[in-house]
Amino acid sequence: MEFLITIIVAIVGGKIGLKLKIPAGAMIGSMVLVSIFNLFSGKAIMPQEYKVLTQIATGAFIGARIEKKDILGLREVLKPAILIVSCMALMNFILGYVLYKNSSLDLATALFSTAPGGMMDMTLIAHELNADSAKVVMFQLIRLISVIGVIPIFLKKIIRKKGEAEVVKTYEKSKSDKKNSLENIILTIVVGIVIGYIGYLSKVPAGALSFSMIGVGIFNIFLNRGVMPIPLRQLIQMFGGALIGTKVSLKDVLEMGQLLHLVVIVIVGFLFMNIIIGLIVYKSSNFNIATSLFSAAPGGVSDISIIASEMGADTPKVAIIQLMRLVSIVSFYPILIQIIVKIIK
């Protein structure tokens, strides 16, 4: 009964978040309402088995976005992509360490809080690896808001200063000829579950998510039938938000209030990282300044690509690099964090 109530609360919260157009609203709305329900009643329950299901579904959603054209376009963007992912990982580890040394956060939580992956992906992986997922999602939300609402303002000034604000290519969401047929959806889910469960059994960090992502990605590249509808993704986000919400305590809420000064460090750190890496790419490639800066922006693939299209960037290149960043971070970041935590401890 308590589990059913938690699910209802999560769905209501997610719907409210979507209605209010909050970034990652399905997840944030669910998390907030389940957290409130848990703080007042102490009866929010979400079985941990749903963590694996949520990770598998999230991996399948990312994998379904990997298409053959992304692979064919790798040659032109491979060098800048490797440079961006490597520099971003290094600078984020530094930012995470600064957060760790200046707060009460443990090292794993601090590193996941500054990880440049998807907010839900990083939070779920952090939850699996026993980091404080409630704090991770707060800092990830701050990153998302700053990337979408703050960073483009500064990037626009740099682009204008360089005098390269002309539009190179207009970004359009690829019009796939795939049909959101029930058959394709079921096939995608089956591939994700089978491969994701193998990943879970392998004991690889975040194996359920990364294996599902790779399996569905390969399935989509060769058969072009990978489909994960947005409503299903939103439902999974609500489950993910509920998982985190059940872990939120009054102690967490009070501690976050004391960490507000670190919000400035995080936002400034991401802005500094974005500009430095973007300028390095600009100097070492044939990308224009807008393409370089937005390729290095630590935001969502679609959000960054759409904003980039308005500021003179070659948005297909931006989209491919952003996708490569997301796949790389989800696949390798958890392993690197475990290694670093063991070394420093």
From TrEMBL:
GO BP, sorted A to Z: regulation of gene expression
GO cellular component term, pick one: membrane
InterPro entries, alphabetized: AbrB_dup, AbrB_fam
Domain of life: Bacteria
Name under which the protein is recorded: Membrane protein AbrB
Transmembrane parts of this sequence: 24-41, 77-100, 137-155, 182-200, 206-223, 259-282, 319-341
Keywords (A to Z) from UniProt: Membrane, Transmembrane, Transmembrane helix
